[in-house]
Amino acid sequence: MAYIIEMLDIVKDFPGIRANDNVTLQVEQGSIHALLGENGAGKSTLMSILFGLYTPDSGSIRIRGEDVRIADPNVANELGIGMVHQHFKLVHNFTVTENIILGLEPHKGLVLDIRHAAAKVAELSKLYGLDVDPYAKIEDISVGMQQRVEILKMLYRDAEMLIFDEPTAVLTPQEIHELMGIMRRLVEEGKTIILITHKLKEIKEVADTCTVLRRGKLIGTVPVAGTSEARMAEMMVGREVSFTVDKGPYSPGDVVLEIKDLCVRNNKNLMAVKSLDLQIRRGEILGLCGIDGNGQTEFIQALTGLAKIESGSVIINGHDITHLPVRQRLDRGLGHIPEDRQRFGLILDFKLDENLVIHSYGQPPYSHYGVLDFSAIRKNADRLIKEFDVRAGRGPATFARSMSGGNQQKAILAREIDRSPEAFIIAQPTRGLDVGAIEYIHKRIVAERDKGKAILLISLELDEILDVSDRIAVIYGGEIVGVVDADKTDENELGLMMSGSIRKAV
Amino acid sequence: MASTIDKVARRRKVLVPFVAVALGFILGSIVVLLTGKNPLLMFNAIIRGLTGIDIARGGFNPRHIGELVIQAMPIILTGLSVGFAFRTGLFNIGAEGQLMLGSLAATAVALTVKAPAFIHIPLIMVAGMGAGAAWGAIPGFLKARFNVHEVVVTIMLNYTALHINNWAILNVFKSVDRVKTAEFPASALLKDQWLADLTNGSRLNWGFIPVILAVIAFWFILEKTTFGFSLRAVGFNKDGAKYAGMKVNRNIVMSMVIAGAFAGLAGAIITTGTFSFGRTLSAAEGYGFDGIAVALVGMTQAPGILLAGLLFGVLKSAGPLMQSAGIPREIGGIIQASIVMFVAMKLGIERILDFAKGKLARKTAETTMDDTEEARV
Amino acid sequence: MSISLILEMFPIALMFAAPLVIAALGGLFSERSGIVNIALEGIMMVGAFAGASVTVVLEPLTPLAPWLGLLAGISAGMLFSLLHAFASINLKADQVISGTALNILAGGMTVYLCQILFNQQRTRAFSSGLRKITVPLLEKIPIIGRILFREIYPTFYVAMALVVLTWFVVFKTPFGLRLRSCGEHPQAAASMGINVYAIRYAGVIISGALAGLAGATMVLTQDIQYTVSSVHGAGFIALASLVFGKWNPWGVLGAGLFFGFAQILSYYAKDIKFLASLPQEVFYMLPYVLTIVALVVFAGKSVGPKAAGEIYDQGKR
Questions:
Q1: Is the separation of the CB atoms in B86 and B300 below 8 Å?
Q2: Most-buried pick from B368, C103, C148, C282 (CB within 10 A)?
Q3: Does domain A3-237 have CATH number 3.30.40.10?
């Protein structure tokens, strides 16, 4: 067993929390080793230690059998460790080459030697089958190519060990497949790969070994071939996980939210939503899936009133809200759970009770003639906290900033559901939340459906869409390219629609 | 556990300006020492300025208290101006210009309108606020509509207002000696001989009443009204406020308008209280920048601004007292600027600590939804 | 508006423009590294004070006094800017607040030192600041020779040289690439092993040196002594030049020249028919109003460094 990387009994504390609790990780040379765990399990912390972004409080690291201290990314680079980040760290207006050479620039005297650099980039690109254009600007290239630039950054520095941090979040199923191929090719060329992920399918497809972390502790290391997805999931979460949502039968009513021929421009003044048609009925959950960047964001903004609608119309319960400002749309029965809850859903520096009246503070009983009634606001918060089980350290007086992600989302849900809107637009509701939180949110969404609401669920997680939706619409290039029943489709079909390869009758 | 930590943190935030003030005075004392003078004389002068009591030589002179109020009034108002805008997330560096135009408007109404005092004076105050409000609306509008950063715009408008003021004083109000206009009629003045006599000949005038009303208005608008609620929301999180349906652009403009009104009021009070005529100005007199200092040190809260205004007011009013003890009066300015720097740095330190707490909160958050107080640090 | 008038105006416009360009280049280095530097005004004041003081003190001793004054301006500017660097980078203070505080401090500090050194609220007047020069061969070039090489303050040539140097350093050297990466995406730079703090310190200190030089230049070419209104907003006009010039050295040069011309319009208004009837104050206001207009026109197409003004924390991922 030639372990190229050994992290032994690593302990890392942050104020009030032990992120890594005596974790041991041993990676064989030339293998693809998966690091599995939920958000907050400690896998990112562990890898940040390996990459030199943090130092461990205790424990040791051995590379190729020798004890090392990795004080910063430069040291990690010298040891041959490279990291391909989840959120790309690319300078948007630099070229591919400039991004790759940053920090290790070839130069003739005082001047940058770009030609030499581009030549080396082209060489590496060919060797590993990573197709890039050395002179293209990052802001102009596709997400897939950007990821390849990230990989090349590491190969340019002769990285032998590559850490991939959740690499598939922004890729289509087909691009994911390509990436798996690239990883195998890298291993063939002698590299070692650590794959951080919470996606069991991918582990099954490409990894040799899997180490599971939960709440900072090491749960176990298993060979992938002999371990089922169910078993890995159980290790990750600590209990048996049901992969499907408990849903009652679905009996849709009449159309509540109708979107006709919608056209919306994005902030680069290009048409991001092109003649989009969609109907959502009472008592149904319509899931909208698509790769990030195909118009979902602009679509949601147009529906909720934050972006101008170029042409087309949005009608809710017969009322045309196309040109109404946000407040009036909310009054006409629109409810909205935004995708970035901390930026759009809450005022973090306001207290919980203030956040819960963020739509209604201007009316009685929360204010009279422009003056706020704080006891009414407080009472409302007490009621919602109880009903929705929102946990906050100081109750209604807690600042939203100190609440956990899950409870912040519960608070937003509580507020929106309490307003009893006819049509609910729910975007990325479970991003960054753990399985327990996800279960609760999904249950709540289904409950609203059963009350007869029309729900538009937008998510980048195909599993969530498949589990929760009754019908599924796919958006590609700003258009709806297919609407199918959830139980009559699968990931592959959706993947093909999401990448524009097939269209289904709408 | 979490609640105690929260409580300590909250108390610490209030401590910041006090610590900064202490550090500023320490620094000032060091500077005084380094230039060969005795810092105790400086402190004596300050105490005299604050209370009228001369510790070194004994005796009490209420004139100093009157002069303190004179110096504090305008900067409390410009402090309210800067502070109000700041709560909405805007940097109003233009209080100076808004004040100048408020002065000009007050001069105009004082010289051209004939009315008994109980009408004339409120009219002058309103004119001052209106002019300041209008001048504040410009950067507000530019920010809301074109997203132009208000810092440079407001500074440019300060210089512009200066020249507008001078042109008007010279050409419209026909300044006789190129420095001031004709004297205002008595009905326009906030001055009162009774107050002057009460304070042994100081320039104390009735201006302090509008100032106190302004402080109360500041507090009431921001903390108790729905309008203030939306202003604070916009100041904390523009995007979140927008999503909630608040009219962000309108709020930005209204906030600058109100901020301008506070500063304009200051101009009116100076012109009809401290002086009794309109003046040309060779340069900005610094009320605007003082207002920034006051707002920062007062942590943009009404009581804080009041106290900070008095503090910086005494640093000014004690200037002549320091000068006569051989200490250059500019030490007051240095102390003031140091206090501001320390507050700015402290805010930075607070931010680091908050950030660490917040990051921590997020980490534990993502671990579990079953949060007990222990995990929620 | 005759040709001879324009030719007459040019050298004076260049005199006004030089400090604006130099200070704006300073702002460029700072903002390109990610730190917004509102304190250019304050640093210019400090540089002007240092320049004037050193010149007046050394005058009787050496004819090189003004040049030593310029050096003093550079050093003073660098020292003063350290405060901004420390507050913004290490303590993560809001950069606009820190900059504003420094502006206030500069005012108080310089006048206080004047009181200590010269017993008045201004420096003593020096008998001659920098002297204009005429470049021997180049002045013979028709037209261009007259406007660019005859009786021009040497600081204009310094400004030109700095423009070229800035362009070279920022866009052609590894340091420049790293500088720009810190201003666009400091997390990316850090992940490549670049010390973001060090680069930003360099950016701010360079801006301090240049703004200090600009201040000294201003007082030594346009005035006879330093007073608290010597700089009167030039630091902010320099900031506007930076925006106007799209954070690019050549753009900054153009913007600086533009504002330089705007400033002298007030002197020459009486010689230009349709401007002669406007009151003086209009011309005093002109540079400031034009700055606002420039900002409005160019605000939408804001192409400044993406991460400028944002607080960078190593812990963030």
A1: yes
A2: C103
A3: no
- Residue B284 included in any domain: yes
* pLDDT at site B281: 84
- State the DSSP H helix or E strand holding residue A261, giving kind and residue range, or none if neither: strand A255-265
Q: Which stretches of chain A drop beneath a pLDDT of 50?
A: none
Q: Establish if B209 belongs to a structural domain.
A: yes
Q: Taking a C-beta distance cutoff of 8 angstroms, is the pair B263, B136 a contact?
A: yes
Q: For chain C, say whether B307 makes contact (Cβ under 8 Å).
A: no
Report ipTM (2 d.p.).
Answer: 0.82
| Tens-level pLDDT at each residue, chain B (377 residues) | 444 555 555 666 677 788 889 888 998 899 888 888 888 888 888 888 888 888 777 778 888 888 899 999 999 999 999 999 999 989 999 999 999 999 999 999 988 888 888 888 999 999 999 999 999 999 999 999 888 888 888 988 998 999 999 989 888 887 777 788 778 888 878 888 888 888 887 888 888 999 999 999 999 999 999 999 999 999 899 888 988 888 899 999 999 999 999 999 999 999 988 888 888 887 778 899 889 989 989 989 999 999 999 999 999 888 888 888 888 777 888 888 888 888 877 766 676 666 666 555 544 433 333 333 222 22
Q: Are B298 and B131 in contact (CB under 8 A)?
A: no
Max CA-CA distance within chain A? 76
Residues from chain B that touch A330, judged by Cβ atoms under 8 A, are: 245
For A242-333+422-506, CATH number? 3.40.50.300
Of the partner residues B242, B356, B369, the one whose CB lies closest to the CB of residue A407 = B369
Q: How many domains does chain B have?
A: 1
Strand order in the sheet with A334-337: A334-337, A423-427, A454-458, A284-289, A471-476, A479-485
Whether residue B369 and residue A433 make contact (CB cut-off 8 A), yes or no, is: yes
What is the rounded CA–CA span in Å between residue A275 and residue A296? 13
Question: For residue B92, what are its two tokens?
Answer: 């109003």
Q: What is the rounded radius of gyration, in angstroms, for the C-alpha atoms of chain B?
A: 23
C-alpha closest to that of B291 among B37, B10, B22, B79: B79
Residue extents of the structural domains in chain A: 3-237, 242-333+422-506, 340-420
> C269 touching B, CB under 8 A?
no
Q: What is the DSSP string of C53-79?
A: HHHHHHTTT-TTHHHHHHHHHHHHHHH
| pLDDT score of C313 | 64
How many Å is the maximal CA-CA distance in chain C? 63
Q: Please say whether the dihedral angle defined by the alpha carbons of residues C217, C221, C226 and C228, taken in this order, is positive or negative.
A: negative
Q: State the DSSP string of A70-124.
A: --SHHHHHHHTEEEE-SS----TTSBHHHHHHTTS--EETTEE-HHHHHHHHHHH
What length does chain B have? Answer: 377
Is B244's Cβ below 8 Å from some Cβ in A?
yes
C259-282 pLDDT, tens digit per residue, is: 888 888 777 776 776 676 778 788
Higher pLDDT, A66 or C129: A66
Which domains can be identified in chain C, with CATH numbers? Answer: 3-127+149-299 (1.10.3470.10)
Selected residue with higher pLDDT from A254 and C147: A254
Q: Which residue of B87, B250, B367 is the best one to mutate when testing the A interface, meaning the one whose CB has the most A CBs within 10 A?
A: B367
Per-residue three-class SS string for B302-330:
HHHHHHHHHHHHHHHHCHHHHHHCCCCCC
pLDDT for A239 equals 59
Tell me how far CA of residue C265 lies from CA of A343, C10, C17, C271, in angstroms.
48, 11, 13, 10
- Phi/psi of residue A423, nearest 5 degrees: -120, 135
Torsion, CA B327, CA B329, CA B331, CA B337, rounded to 10: 180
Q: Are B150 and B143 in contact (CB under 8 A)?
A: yes
Q: What are phi and psi of C79, to 5 degrees?
A: -60, -45
In the numeric block, the tokens 């009490």 are attached to B60
